[in-house]
Design brief:
The complex is a heterodimer of chains A (about 325) and B (about 270). By secondary structure, chain A is α/β, with parallel strands linked by helices. Chain A folds into 2 domains: about 5-230, Rossmann fold (3-Layer(aba) Sandwich), CATH 3.40.50; about 235-305, Alpha-Beta Plaits, CATH 3.30.70.260. In chain A, about 30% of the residues lie in helices and about 30% in strands. Chain A is built from 10 helices and 14 strands. In chain A, the strands form 3 sheets. Chain A has a 6-stranded mixed sheet with strand order 6-7-8-3-9-10, sandwiched between helices. A 4-stranded antiparallel sheet of chain A has the order 2-1-4-5. Chain A is globular, with a radius of gyration of 22 Å. Chain B is mostly helical and about 270 residues long. Chain B has one domain. Chain B is about 80% helix and about 0% strand. Chain B has helices spanning about 5-25, 30-50, 55-80, 80-85, 90-95, 100-130, 140-165, 170-185, 195-205, 205-220, 230-265. In chain B, helix 3 packs antiparallel against helix 8 and helix 7 (about 140-165) packs antiparallel against helix 10 (about 205-220). Chains A and B meet through strand 6 and helix 3 of A and helix 1 and helix 5 of B.
């Protein structure tokens, strides 16, 4: 019988705070096939990490069910743990006084790896992530990027069937992030049974890496498909990016008909506006209103639709 | 994968940082040996000024040696899982396939090894400076009492580790609160019998109390009249305490893990 790598059925998780109940996941239905690199794209607080915690057996669902390789996360957690691993962005696990190798060896022991296998695997992965020269350096002396490479090795060295990557490139420099993405892709290609579930709020990362993406917002999956399928949702729309000087308030923009969504940020006295409109004429109306409110347009670009535009269109808000 | 082998490897893995830590941070030699010796010296000079029997000085040195283990249990066992949660290690331990008791056992074994080195240093310094003479009347009994004391003491540490994880930051206050009263109740620097039968019996829940009492009787035969119970009975109680604390630790850890999964309190909020 074929079993999906991950299956969630009406998965709901709530948290009680002092005054209110927060619904972190709301009736999530999801299937991830074996061999897939599946992305969860959404802003901070969307429920991505909560979903990962449930699937990695660290949190129980409030209602609904979740299965990893056919095992129930609630009842069969002991069968799930040997076949999974996880890595979070900005993770500071391990012990600073141990060396890189020692830290990795220690974690390998928690998965029962024999010494010889552990040593070979660690050395191989250190080389693949270009940090073999750091093997005997103490972890507390590592840079953020080096530390995250160590975390990635920790997550992949135990030969898991599924790896959960929670914002794995958060705060990393471009070069390190690229190397990690390349490593993840290659690791998947080596065995068709391997699966990765990745959460990110970097649309470019999701677009570049993932076979399929679920866009999640306020605990709900609001769109699901391949990156191309998702972008087709905004194919007929117009994606515009404007640089406005001086920075002006844009409250009035909501009242313009035909705006599917927009985000605005201020920097160096300028406003950077991204918007998705249903047709070209709407853009003209926005431009004339900008001038009316005392702003000048320094730059205007019409862009190819991105996953952020999909999110903008679906939620009316940006991903950041 | 063989479960026993998996857990033995996990114990070895978790014990490793504790043992290797000794070599990596030599500053412990000052903080964890010289300072306790100063405290021992204070008591010894008080006894000397009172013309107390020489064996009292031996009581103090032995108490000082065992204090090292108590401090280690408080700060490196009881508070450890809470600390592991703060550094995000805990969620990795929980998501790994080994028994979580292996983590506690690894912590305890690593701590015993590293603390024994400290304790031996204090013992040697104590013997050398204060000329304390120990007469081992029954080496086998001494070894059995010493091992049972450590098993029971670290079993209690394993139990505290789970409970302190549940109590969070308040655990730090609890640690401070427990430190001094236990010195007193366990008779670190005087025979516990001096506290009276009722208090001494109540204090026997702390493994150090009976362990110290039994070891004093074995090492200083002339102090037998100050013994609270026979060393063999104390050994039996210590074994029972060890079993009791370890079973309780397993139950508490399972309970804390379950509650953490329900409430979402086992992982860092930012992750």
């Amino acid at each position: 019988m074929h079993v999906d790598a991950i299956e969630c059925i009406k998965l709901t998780r709530t948290f009680k705070s002092k005054k209110k109940i927060v619904r972190a996941l709301d009736n999530v239905n999801l299937r991830v096939s074996r061999g897939e690199l599946f992305g969860l794209l959404g802003p901070n607080g969307a429920g991505k990490t909560t979903l990962i915690k449930i699937l990695t057996t660290l949190l129980l669902p409030t209602s609904g069910r979740a299965y990893v390789y056919g095992y129930d996360v609630e009842k069969d957690f002991k069968k799930i743990r040997p076949i999974i691993n996880m890595v979070s962005g900005g993770e500071t696990s391990g012990y600073g006084l141990l060396t890189v190798f020692e830290n990795l060896w220690m974690f390998s022991q928690f998965y029962g790896m024999p010494n010889k296998v552990a040593t070979e695997t660690i050395n191989k992965l250190l080389a693949r992530l270009h940090i073999e020269h750091l093997s005997s350096r103490k972890v507390r002396a590592l840079s953020t990027g080096e530390r995250q490479k160590l975390n990635i090795i920790r997550g992949f060295m135990t030969a898991p069937k599924i790896v959960f990557l929670d914002e794995p490139t958060l705060g990393l420099d471009v070069e390190t992030a690229r190397l990690i993405r390349k490593f993840v892709r290659e690791w998947l290609r080596e065995d068709k049974e391997r699966t990765v579930l990745l959460t990110t709020h970097y649309m470019m990362e999701a677009d570049e890496l993932c076979d399929r993406i679920a866009i999640i917002d306020q605990g709900k999956i609001i769109a699901l498909g391949t990156p191309d399928e998702l972008k087709k949702m905004v194919k007929t729309d117009v994606s515009l990016e404007m640089e406005i000087f001086p920075a002006i308030k844009l409250d009035w923009i909501k009242s313009i008909e035909g705006i599917a969504g927009f985000t605005a940020s201020e920097s160096n006295g300028k406003t950077n506006l991204k918007l998705v409109t249903v047709d070209d004429s709407v853009g003209g109306e926005v431009v004339s209103n900008i001038y009316k409110h005392g702003g000048k347009i320094l730059a205007l670009h019409k862009r190819e639709p991105t996953l952020e535009d999909v999110f903008l269109k679906l939620t009316g808000r940006g991903l950041e | 994968m063989n479960t026993i082998l998996l857990n033995l490897r996990a114990i070895r893995g978790r014990a490793y940082p504790r043992v290797i830590g000794l070599m990596r941070e030599p500053s412990w030699i000052f903080w964890e040996t010289v300072l306790p010796v100063l405290s021992i010296a204070a008591f010894i000079y008080v006894y000397r000024s009172l013309n107390a029997p020489a064996m009292y000085e031996g009581f103090v040195v032995l108490g000082g040696v065992m204090t090292t283990y108590w401090l280690n249990v408080l700060w490196s066992m009881a508070a450890q899982l809470y600390w592991e949660k703060e550094t995000a290690n805990l969620q990795l331990y929980l998501a790994a396939p080994m028994s979580k008791m292996s983590i506690l056992a690894g912590m305890a074994i690593g701590a015993i090894v590293s603390t024994t080195l400290r304790a031996c240093t204090i013992l040697i310094i104590g013997i050398f400076i204060f000329h304390v003479n120990f007469v081992v009347t029954s080496p086998l009994l001494l070894i059995l009492v010493f091992i049972s004391t450590l098993v029971a003491l670290y079993g209690m540490g394993m139990l505290f580790a789970s409970l302190f994880l549940m109590w969070g930051r308040e655990a730090w206050y609890l640690n401070n609160l427990l430190q001094e009263p236990v010195y007193f109740l366990s008779g670190q620097y005087f025979p516990v019998k001096a506290l009276g039968a009722v208090i001494a019996s109540a204090a026997s829940i702390i493994p150090l109390t009976l362990g110290l009492d039994a070891m004093r009787q074995i090492l200083f035969p002339e102090s037998a009249s100050w013994g609270f119970l026979s060393p063999w009975i104390e050994l039996l109680i210590l074994v029972l305490l060890g079993v009791f604390f370890i079973i309780c630790a397993k139950y508490a850890l399972d309970k804390v893990e379950y509650l953490g999964k329900v409430k979402g309190t086992l992982t860092m909020r930012w992750q």
